[in-house]
Amino acid sequence: MSTAGAGQPESLFDDAAAEAEEGAAPLAVRMRPRSLDEVAGQAHLTGAGSPLRKLAEHDAPMSLLLWGPPGTGKTTLAYVVSRVTRRRFVELSAVSAGVKDVRAAIEAARTQLGLTGTQTVLFIDEVHRFNKAQQDALLPAVENRWVSFIGATTENPSFSVVGPLMSRSLLLTLRPLGDDDMRAVIDRALADDRGLAGAVGLGEGVADQLIRVAGGDARRALTYLEAAALGLPPGEVIGLAALERAVDRAAVRYDRAGDQHYDVISAFIKSIRGSDADAALHYLARMIEAGEDPRFIARRLIVHASEDVGMADPSALQVAVAAAQAVEFVGLPEARINLAQAVIHLSLAPKSNAVIRAIGAAQGDVQAGLAGPVPAHLRDSSYRGAARLGHGRGYRYPHDYPEGVIPQAYAPDEVAGRRYYEPTRHGAEARYAERSERIREILGRGDGGEAGDPSPAG
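RE: above sequence
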């Protein structure tokens, strides 16, 4: 925990500046923004009229929860707020701090406030790692405004932060930095006197590769840039090979907006459809290493859980949706494990395209004009006058019958007897195939035509 003398606002910016003068601070520290205007990629939080800017400009007591992926600027925002408001800055890490440390920091803040009127920003990094008792220890200080509390978390606070602390704090969500924002961070580090001051340049394609391997993490991008520039003479240009050596990762030839993007995702899906889990995992790894948006990957898995697996393994859709939720809650790099599990499940699952063929055939009929009136006995009979129109008359409630399925017409006459869902005998769908046939026999549609065959059931 950092300390400050009485009446002296404390900020780690001052420490960073001192280190920079000695050439000791890492590039990512030297380039840390000193004002809200320098913060990249979070305009929705730092723009004119935003809650954060209002809090900072009016020097108001505040309690904030900053939620976002690593390297998006959570700690930076806390530093900037303490700097522009001229408050003491005290940082604790939930990894190493306990209740005793929290209470000591709060007591010191109360003392400073009482003796000198100096307010304190208490920043808790990875606050989601605090247990309930540790989080509860913050409540009196937050409630009484003894400190301006700022908590940073990479996990959804709705699940990891206690309700009383959530209700007393303003939740601000940070977004992963886009390519343009990352490029601006890199360009500033290359040119700024606090950074590399124009000593080195970047060769063709190096900035793009740096953005890919950083994965939206500005701190990581600057760390890699510094490693690649280390020991180079002034005026040298960093080439792709030099960057690869510095980060120990080969450049993945992948353009998120070009042919490689479509070729790789196509091969990925076809490998899952073909039940080759190893090939599918290769393409998954390739996309992750190239910086593909994991949400895009998760969306494709959800689609193909129904398109290529369907009722042959109904749990496949649940697994795919769970992986997508994990991407949102956890983020990369950890969520790569969840995506890999879903890929393996979908690859090894029995396959059926009966679902997509069924909805395709049904839509085809509707688009062809086969959409007659709803049978009278199925129409809404809840409003006054419906009985006079014959709505609901003759409808039989299936639950009143022992079998739960009774002979009764449900489809409009125009499509009576058409069969859209034609289950395979693969995996769990074999059970649904048998049940589907039994139900159709009861309904009087057991000898009906195939999908696309307009002949009614006999």
